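Aim 2 progress update. The chain analyzed this quarter is reproduced below.
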Amino acid sequence: MAGFFALAAYLRGSALQRNTLAGMHVVVAGGGTAGHIEPAMNLADALRRRDPAVGITALGTETGMENTLVPARGYSLRHVPRVPLPRRPTLDLFRLPSKLRGAVKAAGAVLDEVGADVVVGFGGYVSVPAYLAARKRKLPIVVHEANAGPGVANRLGARMTKFVAVTARAEDLPHGRLIGLPLRQTISTLDRAATRAEARAYFGLDPDRPTLLVFGGSLGAKRLNDAATGAADALHAAGIQVLHSVGREHAASVSAPARAGSDPGAPYVVVPYLERMDLAYAAADVALCRAGAMTCAELAAVGLPAVYVPLPIGNGEQRRNALPVVEAGGGLVVEDSAVNAAWITENVVPLAGDPARVSAMGAAAAAHGRRDADEVLVDLVLEALASSNGAGKRS
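Predicted structure tokens:
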């Protein structure tokens, strides 16, 4: 494995001798949800590691999560009008051309002002205006699709470029290259075994007990909260400790189950939010969670087996996000409606208490996961820049 990473580093170094980010300005477009913003920021971090002087600007809307997440990561954010693309005939469809023209004009103004050399889109409301503005200026376009089911924005963007990266299946988009999802470096470089003792001490967990991590994203998930706390007695009886992130919206209504006597047994630790996901992954043996694209990618990359409970909305993209790692043997998937205290008692408790099965599932997850997608995406950006031969660059 060490030889593989050494070879990859050598090849990237050779690529940098041919291509450079020096003097370049990269515009990343993807706002609205963390699923679009987080991989964009992870790419930005990887670009800065390659060349600290590279210019980076993020495009977003005035109302999305990017207004918190992007500045927190130290990057400049510029706003583009929010233009949802109707999925069925409505009055909004007739208003779309004028709204879209305004958004494309706004995106183009940002590209001109910052002297953009390339646009990298991650989907969402701002990507379509960014793609169209970039095409008008003959700037190279790179598309990254995080989900197993590509959205409207990236299906359109993939028609404008041959530089298309996907997380799930190469065939999901034209010219798709399977690279995985760009992760934070704290996750992509995590050694769970080496960090376990520190992580369990950080959360006040027993250093030696099997550990179940429960989380439903930053907002939490009532279904998972109810099921996990309802199974607390069964988990406690089996000696399984729990680290449960209930979500900020549920923090006031969910608390750790009370234990009588001086020996509480296996701890049940409740937190409103996990600021250190790396330590949460290191502390855990098994996870019970939703199946967002970032969650699936992170768990597979760090080799943490999981029971995925897809959010039952949209077009089933969360289930499709989980299926590749589940089919590889790195997890289980269960319908939201089936998850309750009894199901956890019958299925999760035996799994968490079986070290051999947990180890095998973790190895399968790790074999499926990708830790280098951020660096590979930087290479794709460099490839797009090299292919442009200066076409569309600011004069």
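The chain has two domains: 10-183+372-388, 186-368. Residues 1-18 have pLDDT under 50 and may be disordered. These observations will guide the mutagenesis experiments scheduled for the next reporting period.
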